[in-house]
Amino acid sequence: MKNLEEEMKRPFEVDSEYPFKDHWLPYHDGYIHYIDEGQGPTVLLLHGNPTWSYLYRNVIKELHNDYRLIALDYPGFGMSKAPSHYGFTPQEHSEAVLDFIYRLDLKNFVLVVQDWGGPIGLNYAVRHRENLCGIVVMNSWAWPATLLPMKIFSLVMGGWPLGYWLQTHHNFFAKNIVPQGIYHSEKVTESLRKAYTDPFPTLKSRIPTWIFPRQIRKARSWLAEIESKLPALSDLPAQILWGTKDSAGFPPEEMAKWQRYLQMNETESLSDASHYVQEDRPDRVAASIRRVLERTS
Predict the structure, then answer these.
(1) pLDDT tens digits, one per residue of 262-281
(2) Active site residue: 73, 198, 246, 280, which one?
(3) Nearest Cα to 40, choosing from 70, 71, 68, 69?
(4) Residue tagged active-site, from 47, 198, 275, 280
(5) Share of the chain above pLDDT 70, in %
(6) Is 246 a catalytic residue?
């Protein structure tokens, strides 16, 4: 790993908003990029589509004096390189996260999830409850999609040929969906747009952003299996933080479902946040992490 870290360089430039030291972990014949900032209780931050560890930059800057914050980029996202024959499915990402946790020997940590980070992280959580001390859940899910808006979203954004064409030829998810999923439009700067589009410079590199919405339908059995095990987390201290301006299929009904499964929850609804809560209200994300750690100390 040391040799890899000495050899690696960022595949694209990021502005000073992301001032962290890069770390690189071999993964088959690819590698996983991650940041590991601060010391103290461990917090693992999982992103969704088409984001990467940049999403958590302001949360990390607020908390790194008190905690150890780790954020990785899934293979094919951010600065990570997917191994050969990698299919970019949530199941494969979850396996990559499992391997990452094992190789970094992460113990008794807080799991923070949003968007696809929910199923990817919860697939680990329901199987390794004993290794978690708490969880923070933002706009996400961990069960088969039942709401019509999410099904339509999957059919359009992850469909063929329209969805494939939008993602691969126009980088539509990174260029359009991300800015639309941030309520505070003044935060959507050119440097922010660039940070989310630069990881996908070619048609081939954009395929993972098409596979994710497609998997909302294709991964139904995998999602159902995760849901069947969610009762194992009924005693896990949880903070639920929900952006209520989210039009991407995450209405209050989905938040209520989390509340039923995570019975040890404290919930905060944010009327000034949309899907990407970490961009709209990083201060409340940081506060939720602090709170769940207070509850577990």
Answers:
(1) 999 999 999 999 999 999 99
(2) 246
(3) 68
(4) 275
(5) 99
(6) yes
- What are the beta bridge partners of residue 241? 268
pLDDT digits (tens, 9 = 90+) for 78-101: 999 999 999 999 999 999 999 999
**Residue 97: which of 70, 79, 115, 78 has the closest Cα?**
70
The total of other beta-carbon atoms located within 10 Å of residue 89's CB is: 17
Measured CA to CA in angstroms, residue 297 lies from 100, 110, 133, 176, 290 at distances of 25, 12, 9, 41, 10
Whether omega for the bond prior to residue 252 falls within 30 degrees of 0, making it cis, is no
* Tokens describing residue 120: 């990817």
- The amino acid at residue 272 is D
**pLDDT for the residue numbered 2:** 54
Catalytic-residue membership of 73:
no
- Say if residues 202 and 240 touch (Cβ distance below 8 Å): no
Annotated active-site residue 115? The verdict is yes
**Catalytic annotation, pick one of 36, 115, 198, 280:** 115
Task: Please tell me what DSSP assigns to residue 100.
Answer: H
| DSSP 8-class letter at 81 | B
Measure the CA–CA gap between 289 and 268, rounded to whole angstroms: 12
**Which residues on adjacent β-strands are paired with residue 109?**
132
